[in-house]
């Protein structure tokens, strides 16, 4: 997997909505969080899949869904179904810090969508 600074694609993360921001080789979406810190994973993935030219999605999260669809199996099911209905399904890579309860969910989401799950276990400071 190439580093994000070299990637051409779209990043999506939402809690209350998806809004355009700026580009860095390709359009990027605001990495927003609500004041309550809620995460609407189903909305973020749906919005990313609505972009018909997207071939690869890097989904970064800091936890489990707290808004929208809250059942991980349902998110995986709906996301995979929507992805397979596309003319060309996107690969979904999931990236998250060490959150044991999210590992199975994010691994399944990536596996069912031809991507990989990356568990971040340490952060190196420069």
Radius of gyration: 14 Å
Helix/strand order: EEEHEHEHE
Number of extended strands: 6
Number of separate structural domains: 1
Mean pLDDT over all positions: 76
- Number of helical segments with 4 or more residues: 3
Low-confidence parts = 1-33
Distance N to C terminus: 22 Å
Structural class, by secondary structure, is alpha/beta
Strand order of the largest sheet: 1-4-5-6
CATH fold-level label: Rossmann fold
Please describe the biggest sheet, giving its number of strands, its sense, and whether it closes into a barrel: 4 strands, parallel
Helix content: 25-40%
Please tell me what the overall shape is: globular
Given this structure, which CATH class is correct?
Answer: Alpha Beta
Q: State the CATH architecture.
A: 3-Layer(aba) Sandwich
Description of the molecule:
By secondary structure, the chain is α/β, with parallel strands linked by helices. The protein has one domain (10-120): 3-Layer(aba) Sandwich (Rossmann fold), CATH 3.40.50.410. Helix content is 28%, strand content 20%. The chain is built from 3 helices and 6 strands. It has a 4-stranded parallel beta sheet, covered by helices on one side. Helix 1 (41-49) packs parallel to helix 2 and helix 2 packs parallel to helix 3 (100-112). The longest helix has 13 residues, at 72-84. The two termini are 22 Å apart.
